[in-house]
Amino acid sequence: MLFSVSGVKAVEQHLDSIVPFYIKQSEADNHAVREAACACIAELATKVGSAPVRVHVPALIQGLLVCFEDDSWPVRDAACTACGNFVSVFAEECRDYIERLMPLFYINLEDNIPSVRQGAAVAITNIVRAYSSPLSNDVVAKLSELLDAVNTQPDDSTLYSDLSKKPAVFGVAMADDAAHTNQVMYSCGSLAPKMGRGGKAPGAG
Description:
Elements: H1 7-13, H2 15-25, H3 31-46, H4 50-54, H5 57-67, H6 73-89, H7 91-94, H8 98-109, H9 114-131, H10 135-149
Protein backbone atom coordinates (compact mmCIF):
# COMPACT_ATOMS: atom_id res chain seq x y z
CA MET A 1 0.00 0.00 0.00
CA LEU A 2 1.11 3.59 -0.65
CA PHE A 3 0.53 6.53 1.68
CA SER A 4 1.20 10.11 0.67
CA VAL A 5 1.88 11.59 4.12
CA SER A 6 0.58 9.15 6.74
CA GLY A 7 2.73 6.08 6.15
CA VAL A 8 4.43 6.13 9.55
CA LYS A 9 1.12 6.41 11.40
CA ALA A 10 -0.32 3.56 9.35
CA VAL A 11 2.65 1.36 10.30
CA GLU A 12 2.25 2.27 13.96
CA GLN A 13 -1.45 1.40 13.85
CA HIS A 14 -0.81 -2.02 12.31
CA LEU A 15 2.37 -3.08 14.11
CA ASP A 16 0.66 -6.11 15.64
CA SER A 17 0.35 -7.49 12.11
CA ILE A 18 3.50 -6.02 10.59
CA VAL A 19 5.98 -7.27 13.20
CA PRO A 20 5.02 -10.97 12.90
CA PHE A 21 5.15 -10.61 9.10
CA TYR A 22 8.63 -9.10 9.17
CA ILE A 23 9.86 -11.84 11.49
CA LYS A 24 8.31 -14.49 9.28
CA GLN A 25 10.06 -13.05 6.24
CA SER A 26 13.37 -13.03 8.14
CA GLU A 27 13.00 -16.82 8.18
CA ALA A 28 12.33 -17.14 4.43
CA ASP A 29 14.29 -19.64 2.34
CA ASN A 30 15.36 -16.86 -0.03
CA HIS A 31 18.33 -15.00 1.43
CA ALA A 32 17.42 -11.79 -0.44
CA VAL A 33 14.05 -11.81 1.34
CA ARG A 34 15.76 -12.31 4.70
CA GLU A 35 18.04 -9.36 3.99
CA ALA A 36 15.07 -7.16 3.05
CA ALA A 37 13.23 -8.21 6.21
CA CYS A 38 16.18 -7.15 8.36
CA ALA A 39 16.31 -3.80 6.58
CA CYS A 40 12.59 -3.29 7.24
CA ILE A 41 13.02 -4.23 10.89
CA ALA A 42 15.90 -1.74 11.18
CA GLU A 43 13.57 1.04 10.06
CA LEU A 44 11.12 0.24 12.85
CA ALA A 45 13.75 1.51 15.27
CA THR A 46 14.61 4.71 13.39
CA LYS A 47 11.51 5.79 11.47
CA VAL A 48 8.61 4.77 13.71
CA GLY A 49 7.71 6.13 17.13
CA SER A 50 9.45 4.26 19.94
CA ALA A 51 6.35 3.90 22.13
CA PRO A 52 4.38 1.55 19.84
CA VAL A 53 7.50 -0.44 18.89
CA ARG A 54 8.80 -0.95 22.43
CA VAL A 55 6.59 -3.92 23.27
CA HIS A 56 7.78 -5.74 20.14
CA VAL A 57 11.52 -5.30 20.75
CA PRO A 58 12.18 -8.75 22.32
CA ALA A 59 10.55 -10.60 19.42
CA LEU A 60 12.35 -8.47 16.85
CA ILE A 61 15.75 -8.91 18.48
CA GLN A 62 15.23 -12.66 18.69
CA GLY A 63 14.55 -12.74 14.97
CA LEU A 64 17.59 -10.59 14.22
CA LEU A 65 19.83 -12.82 16.32
CA VAL A 66 18.98 -15.74 14.03
CA CYS A 67 19.74 -13.66 10.94
CA PHE A 68 23.00 -12.50 12.52
CA GLU A 69 24.32 -16.04 12.02
CA ASP A 70 23.08 -16.41 8.45
CA ASP A 71 25.19 -18.02 5.74
CA SER A 72 24.64 -14.94 3.57
CA TRP A 73 26.86 -11.96 4.41
CA PRO A 74 24.31 -9.33 3.25
CA VAL A 75 21.82 -10.84 5.69
CA ARG A 76 24.35 -10.76 8.53
CA ASP A 77 25.22 -7.18 7.61
CA ALA A 78 21.56 -6.10 7.61
CA ALA A 79 20.93 -7.86 10.92
CA CYS A 80 23.97 -6.18 12.44
CA THR A 81 22.77 -2.75 11.34
CA ALA A 82 19.28 -3.43 12.65
CA CYS A 83 20.57 -4.57 16.04
CA GLY A 84 22.71 -1.45 16.30
CA ASN A 85 19.67 0.68 15.57
CA PHE A 86 17.61 -1.03 18.23
CA VAL A 87 20.32 -0.73 20.86
CA SER A 88 20.61 3.01 20.20
CA VAL A 89 16.86 3.55 20.65
CA PHE A 90 15.84 0.78 23.06
CA ALA A 91 18.90 0.40 25.29
CA GLU A 92 17.04 -0.98 28.31
CA GLU A 93 14.98 -3.44 26.29
CA CYS A 94 18.14 -4.72 24.56
CA ARG A 95 20.32 -4.94 27.66
CA ASP A 96 19.60 -8.63 28.24
CA TYR A 97 20.79 -9.46 24.73
CA ILE A 98 24.16 -7.72 24.84
CA GLU A 99 26.10 -10.82 25.87
CA ARG A 100 24.83 -12.60 22.78
CA LEU A 101 25.20 -9.60 20.49
CA MET A 102 28.76 -8.53 21.25
CA PRO A 103 30.49 -11.70 19.93
CA LEU A 104 28.43 -11.38 16.74
CA PHE A 105 29.39 -7.74 16.32
CA TYR A 106 33.05 -8.70 16.70
CA ILE A 107 32.73 -11.48 14.12
CA ASN A 108 31.33 -8.98 11.61
CA LEU A 109 34.13 -6.59 12.51
CA GLU A 110 36.61 -9.22 11.28
CA ASP A 111 34.70 -10.01 8.09
CA ASN A 112 36.54 -9.81 4.78
CA ILE A 113 33.77 -7.63 3.29
CA PRO A 114 34.53 -3.93 4.01
CA SER A 115 30.88 -2.87 4.24
CA VAL A 116 30.22 -5.60 6.82
CA ARG A 117 33.11 -4.34 8.94
CA GLN A 118 31.81 -0.79 8.60
CA GLY A 119 28.31 -1.79 9.71
CA ALA A 120 29.74 -3.60 12.72
CA ALA A 121 31.83 -0.57 13.68
CA VAL A 122 28.76 1.67 13.61
CA ALA A 123 26.77 -0.84 15.65
CA ILE A 124 29.52 -1.13 18.25
CA THR A 125 29.62 2.66 18.47
CA ASN A 126 25.91 2.60 19.28
CA ILE A 127 26.55 -0.03 21.95
CA VAL A 128 29.23 2.07 23.66
CA ARG A 129 27.05 5.18 23.54
CA ALA A 130 24.12 3.29 25.04
CA TYR A 131 25.91 1.50 27.87
CA SER A 132 29.23 3.32 28.29
CA SER A 133 31.55 1.99 31.02
CA PRO A 134 32.40 -0.79 31.86
CA LEU A 135 31.38 -2.15 28.45
CA SER A 136 33.45 0.50 26.71
CA ASN A 137 36.59 -0.83 28.39
CA ASP A 138 35.91 -4.31 27.02
CA VAL A 139 35.31 -2.86 23.56
CA VAL A 140 38.58 -0.90 23.59
CA ALA A 141 40.48 -4.03 24.64
CA LYS A 142 38.90 -6.10 21.88
CA LEU A 143 39.47 -3.43 19.24
CA SER A 144 43.12 -3.16 20.26
CA GLU A 145 43.43 -6.93 19.83
CA LEU A 146 41.86 -6.80 16.37
CA LEU A 147 44.01 -3.88 15.26
CA ASP A 148 47.14 -5.75 16.30
CA ALA A 149 45.99 -8.68 14.15
CA VAL A 150 46.05 -6.44 11.06
CA ASN A 151 49.84 -6.75 11.05
CA THR A 152 49.59 -10.50 10.49
CA GLN A 153 47.03 -10.55 7.69
CA PRO A 154 48.25 -11.60 4.23
CA ASP A 155 49.01 -8.91 1.71
CA ASP A 156 47.03 -9.56 -1.49
CA SER A 157 47.14 -6.04 -2.88
CA THR A 158 49.31 -7.16 -5.83
CA LEU A 159 46.66 -9.42 -7.37
CA TYR A 160 45.69 -6.85 -10.00
CA SER A 161 48.71 -4.59 -9.78
CA ASP A 162 49.17 -4.67 -13.56
CA LEU A 163 46.07 -2.54 -14.18
CA SER A 164 46.76 0.82 -15.79
CA LYS A 165 46.91 3.75 -13.36
CA LYS A 166 46.87 6.41 -16.10
CA PRO A 167 44.01 8.96 -16.19
CA ALA A 168 41.05 8.12 -18.44
CA VAL A 169 42.30 4.59 -19.09
CA PHE A 170 40.13 1.77 -17.83
CA GLY A 171 41.77 -1.38 -16.56
CA VAL A 172 39.97 -4.71 -16.67
CA ALA A 173 40.73 -7.31 -14.06
CA MET A 174 41.02 -10.61 -15.90
CA ALA A 175 39.87 -13.75 -14.14
CA ASP A 176 43.18 -15.41 -13.47
CA ASP A 177 42.37 -17.76 -10.63
CA ALA A 178 40.29 -20.92 -10.38
CA ALA A 179 37.85 -19.42 -7.89
CA HIS A 180 36.58 -16.94 -10.49
CA THR A 181 37.00 -18.88 -13.72
CA ASN A 182 34.22 -20.86 -15.47
CA GLN A 183 31.84 -20.32 -12.56
CA VAL A 184 28.07 -19.82 -12.67
CA MET A 185 27.08 -16.15 -12.86
CA TYR A 186 23.86 -14.62 -11.55
CA SER A 187 22.25 -11.35 -12.53
CA CYS A 188 20.28 -11.17 -9.28
CA GLY A 189 20.99 -12.42 -5.78
CA SER A 190 17.52 -13.91 -5.59
CA LEU A 191 18.45 -16.36 -8.36
CA ALA A 192 21.55 -17.63 -6.61
CA PRO A 193 21.60 -20.97 -4.78
CA LYS A 194 19.76 -20.96 -1.48
CA MET A 195 21.89 -20.09 1.51
CA GLY A 196 21.09 -21.40 4.96
CA ARG A 197 19.47 -19.08 7.46
CA GLY A 198 20.92 -18.72 10.90
CA GLY A 199 23.93 -20.84 10.00
CA LYS A 200 21.68 -23.78 9.08
CA ALA A 201 21.46 -25.64 5.83
CA PRO A 202 18.59 -24.66 3.52
CA GLY A 203 15.35 -26.24 4.67
CA ALA A 204 16.64 -26.92 8.17
CA GLY A 205 14.16 -26.29 10.94
